[in-house]
Amino acid sequence: MKLASLKHGRDGRLVVVSRDLSRCIAVPQIAATLQAALDDWANVVIHLRDISDALNAGQLADALPFDPADCAAPLPRAYQWVDGSAYLNHVELVRKARNAEMPPSFYTDPLMYQGGSDDLQGARDPITIRDEAWGTDLEAEVAVITDDVPIGTTAAEAHKHIRLLMLVNDVSLRGLIPNELAKGFGFVLSKPASAFSPVAVTPDELEGDWREGKLHLPLRTWINGEWFGEPNAGEEMTFSHADLIAHLATTRKLGAGSIVGSGTISNKDRKRGFCCIAEVRMIETIEQGKPATPFLKHGDTVKIDMWDQAGRSIFGSIEQTVQLVK
Amino acid sequence: MKLASLKHGRDGRLVVVSRDLSRCIAVPQIAATLQAALDDWANVVIHLRDISDALNAGQLADALPFDPADCAAPLPRAYQWVDGSAYLNHVELVRKARNAEMPPSFYTDPLMYQGGSDDLQGARDPITIRDEAWGTDLEAEVAVITDDVPIGTTAAEAHKHIRLLMLVNDVSLRGLIPNELAKGFGFVLSKPASAFSPVAVTPDELEGDWREGKLHLPLRTWINGEWFGEPNAGEEMTFSHADLIAHLATTRKLGAGSIVGSGTISNKDRKRGFCCIAEVRMIETIEQGKPATPFLKHGDTVKIDMWDQAGRSIFGSIEQTVQLVK
Fold it and tell me: ipTM score here?
């Protein structure tokens, strides 16, 4: 099942989207918003699936064309957005570029940060920045949405709390990160609004590519229309999505609609390219002494997509243009 | 005007509370929840004020007794909870206890962290912990709730976006903080669910005690019924609530219902006591070589309150008991 939120008010209008992303239908009789559906998932999911099945069978004459440009984020605002760094190749490169050792605990204790969730962007919304010198970067990731997760939930139990998956562009202001992390309290200014794929999908849509809490498909990125990378999100992921949820649940429960991100997808095989500019700049620094690839500027475009085994977009693409505002 | 959310579903039932905290009345005809009111504040505030005026005048026969034990947090879940460290005496003591210098930038660049907002506790809810060895501490603070704050909002402009104030117990697990901060991405596990005062109040309720974006009254704390502190929240606050909002708005807008905390209230005058146990332990460490005051254990109680000039509770008290769950 695929779900989206068309732009409407603060929380969007929930629609069920056909598997091929061509048609959609609003379901106010079931739930007006995705958050409302997640708040009562056990009861509403069967009704949403009935609509989805009928839509995919071409039985709903009142379905409308689906346009990703009409989409808000699946959750236009959420009660929690917390992001991991599950791909340690990315973290190793960051450390290597500044000649720092990787702490051994990083291989057993997930690195995660709490993000702002009051303003989540739609797939075609601009990346709004106030200063190009802040060093704007994409971070292409996979995220899951949970239902209610009790305190103390284990990784084995966490799997069943993963209700939906989607893609994220966790926009990062690289120039602001060193000062902010030096202060010791994590990211605040350096992580402005993230953007999400047009649709969120239930795990069963991913068939065999979703296993052991990892999505085993390449995450594809382009910058200004040029191929930038396609590392596989299922490989070299040290902590699965279930591991990340269990880590959070160590000291607290998670409310329905919590969004948990994987961190930037990153593989050791450099031929696969990248999901963020910082990483290629680190490799340039390690190999050539200084970075060469520039960060994003006004008018630059970013595209993020994931295809199934047959080459069809699963979530629809994130396509954003950087917009400088004063 | 004073507002509260009685426990009801996930988001509570909005009530207007009388100034003396004795009576309340639900206002579903205006807004079912506090978030709904904040989403449309400019339009609903006049209607809420009419109810408040009538309630305070004793004109509402259908008002009910107000019991803080019935209260959820004013926002039982929020789209943003971000907390500052505006009282630098607290930060100085932390640093001094471990012989670290205070970076000069800390006096001009606010220290803030993004907190989890999917689970905000009511004033009489327990502090739920899974391990006493985690070192459970209170942090008594003042927080504001904003309406929509545009990107780039200055401190001078931020004042008008402060719609409500409340008290917070920003529960901290001191034993988990060193490891988590060493990882560099801020607090995740070490800041479980915060609790909030029974009511949130509009700035005009505070009269002359709310000025220049600071609340000039002592914040009173008790542990197991014994006086623990009463530092003044308006003194030695390096960054006002407006400064903190403006800092956040540097790179992003804030959604309506964003909660922005002050950080633990702390004054240099030690006779005024403390708003967190860590601080008295730091002073014990500096003076005696090691801490003596224990952190909170199962069954311990914490009370946090603020009185107006006439000694009346403004927000109602936070009164929590530590509950160990396995």
Answer: 0.97
